[in-house]
Amino acid sequence: MHDKSGFVEAAAFFVPAEAVIVTMLAYVVRRLCGAIPTLAVIVALSFVMTRLAPGGPFDEEQALAPEIRANLEAAYGLDQPVAVQFGRYVAGLLHGDFGPSYKFRDFTVTELISSGLPVSLTIGAAAILLAILLGIPAGIWAALRQDQLADRLVMSLAVAGISVPVFVIAPFLALVFGIWLHWLPVAGWVPGRSGDLVLPVVTLALPVIAYLARLMRGSLLEVLRAPWIRAARARGLPPHRILLLHALPGALLPVVSYLGPAVAAVLTGSLVVETIFGLPGMGRHLVQGALNRDYTLVMGMVIVYATLMITLNLMADLVYAWLDPRIRRERRL
Amino acid sequence: MSGRGSLWRDALARLAGNRVALVSLAILALMVVAAVVGPLLLDYRQDEIDWANMAVPPFSAAGHWLGTDRLGRDLLVRTLHGLRVSMGIALLATLVSLAIGVSWGAVAGYLRGRTDALMMRVVDVLYALPQVFFVIILTVVFGRSPATLLVAIGAFGWLTMARIVRGQAMALRECEFVEAAIVGGAGTARIVIRHIIPNLLGPVIVFATLTVPQVILVESFLSFLGIGIQEPLASLGNLIADGAVEMETATWILAVPAAYLVLLVFCFNFLGDGLRDALDPRDH
To answer: In chain B, is it the N or the C terminus that has fewer CB atoms within a 10 Å radius of its CB?
Structure first.
């Protein structure tokens, strides 16, 4: 693979497009085969962990009468052996049924998930989009003005954005833009009122913007030192052509590889953002469930979050593989 | 032995030339001293209520340097206690992950073969789990105590350390001094403990320094959500959560712990970067 002559690279260049699709398919299948056992481990682990819990879900301050307790446990299937309970749970999961919530007695976990998921996905997707639209250009700008004022400014902001956690940024932004300036609503969610989403989305996006800017700057600076860029300059190509066609495609790869961790950061941050800004998303349900020790709710939410994370990570990796010729052509020659 | 000594001396010299890292180290030392000694020198206890001075701003009431919260508890004392708890958990959890990660990685990297593949497979699977969410499950299951937090965070923190150490160990075992030790009749345990692990110290120190702020952030994140450290114990996270509720009328209750947390994380990150530059000059 790592021949210095460039012969392999040159030969790979002439492989027909169908072959590329076939290797990509093989890559997709291989990655999917890795993701499914991980999901199984997550489901099994979260089930086992909640069963390890000392005390049952109906232990409250006032002890229940034994008959009522027995009835409750029978109603929720908790009187069955653990293996049977696990089997039922997995069978339910496969049909999209996450079981009843132990504390919100009127809702099933599936109902809570399907009401919260659209909210969380909306702010998450908007945050990632915003981060890409702002972080990458900021990084490019800083790289092109290396060691000048603009670069220093962008990089100091980036260090701040990385070090200041979401749960400090969120109240701070709410204070400045909501309470002092009255520009934006501080909390609440009315479907269709987009102003409600500005602060949550910006809060979630800021750390990702900072990481993307730093990564983009670093990788672009590295690529700009490469011999083929010097060659392009020597051939007298205009600077914007060199940047767009020669430097950026390669420099973007590390940035794309960060998208997976970025998704994880945004999903984790959404717990804080939904709690602070009072959005009825999955994150808030998870936090409420954790505070109430609502095992089925927490388990269901964790499984959905994990599935989201693994799926989106997989998609980010596939984009990376598709962009990176070294992986795209892997195993062919 | 003299070779290793000079490596560390060089690193120290490089670190001494890095002003940002030195300032960070000084601030961190100051914060540790303040967190340990400070509450003893101040007049109030962390849960003591001053009925005459509720929610007073900084520097306005005698004895309350940074003001009080809405219950009249001294904010500086509570913040220093929070610093104690947050730093204590972070240092202990980092030590836990250090111990597991270094031994796991060193053994896997040294033994190689099937043992290595199996051990690293475990790391891969755990790595793929959304860790914060499993920490949340653990706190739900085992109650929200500092000990649960410590174990839960430490249980996941060692994975990256194991990977780093394994890579280093694989490279080190090819070195001549290891061959010499084998020829000299040293057993596996002795080689790992006396020859491999001491040579891993550089990257391990760097990574540990960068792990501490991560742990501080996870702990305060959970405490902020109410899942971590519980009242009346203070942690930087639940102090910030308290402050966020009151920010409309009493901004300082949010600003003081937030400033401490940000400063803490900044300093650890700068120190970690400085140590990396000092111990691993190859990149520069």
So the answer is: N
pLDDT at B2 over 50: no
The answer to whether the CB atoms of B141 and A53 lie below 8 A apart is yes
* Cα gap A21→A23, rounded to integer Å: 6
In chain B, where the domains are located: 2-283
Suggest the residue from B123, B135, B141 to mutate for an interface test with chain A (most A CBs closer than 10 A). B141
For chain A, say whether B129 makes contact (Cβ under 8 Å). yes
Contact check, Cβ <8 Å, A302/B137: yes
Predicted TM-score (pTM) of this structure: 0.81
What are the structural domains, with CATH classification, of chain A? Answer: 5-331 (1.10.3720.10)
Residues in chain B: 284
Interchain CB distance below 8 Å, A53 and B224: no
* B269 shares contact with chain A (CB less than 8 Å): yes
Class in CATH terms, B2-283? mainly alpha
C-alpha–C-alpha distance, residues B222 and B229, integer Å: 8
DSSP string, A281-313: SHHHHHHHHHHHT-HHHHHHHHHHHHHHHHHHH
B249 vs B70: CA distance, rounded Å: 10
Q: What is the DSSP string of A89-127?
A: HHHHHHTT---B-SSSTT-BHHHHHHHHHHHHHHHHHHH
Q: Are A186 and A277 in contact (CB under 8 A)?
A: yes
Confidence at residue A134, expressed as pLDDT on a 0 to 100 scale: 93
A165·B261 Cβ contact <8 A: yes
Query: How would you write the pLDDT of chain A (333 residues) with one tens digit per residue?
Result: 344 444 444 445 455 556 666 777 777 788 788 788 888 888 888 888 877 766 666 666 566 777 877 777 777 777 777 788 888 888 888 887 777 777 777 778 888 888 888 888 888 999 999 999 999 999 999 888 888 888 888 888 888 888 888 888 888 888 888 778 877 776 666 666 666 788 889 999 999 999 899 889 988 888 888 888 888 888 888 888 888 888 888 888 888 888 888 888 888 888 888 888 888 888 888 888 888 877 788 888 888 888 888 888 888 888 887 777 666 555 443
Residues near B101 by beta carbon (within 8 Å), at least 6 away in sequence: B157, B158, B159, B160, B161, B162, B164, B165
Interface check for A66 against chain B (CB to CB < 8 A): the answer is: no
CA distances to A181, A284, B177, B256 from A20, rounded to whole Å, are: 54, 43, 47, 57
Does B226 contact A291 at a Cβ distance shorter than 8 Å? Answer: yes
Does the CB of B226 have a partner CB in chain A at under 8 Å? yes
Residue A83 phi, psi dihedral angles, 5° rounding:
-60, -40
ipTM score of the complex?
0.77
Q: Where are the alpha helices (DSSP H) in chain B?
A: 2-16, 19-41, 75-111, 113-128, 131-142, 146-172, 176-183, 188-190, 197-225, 236-246, 251-279
Q: Does B247 touch chain A (CB under 8 A)?
A: yes
Q: Which among B79, B125, B137, B268 is the top mutation candidate for probing chain A, defined by the most A β-carbons within 10 Å of its own β-carbon?
A: B137
Token couple for B252: 């300082």
Q: What average pLDDT does range B178-198 have in this prediction? A: 82
CA–CA–CA angle A165, A170, A173 (5° rounding): 120
Per-residue pLDDT, averaged over B246-267, amounts to 84
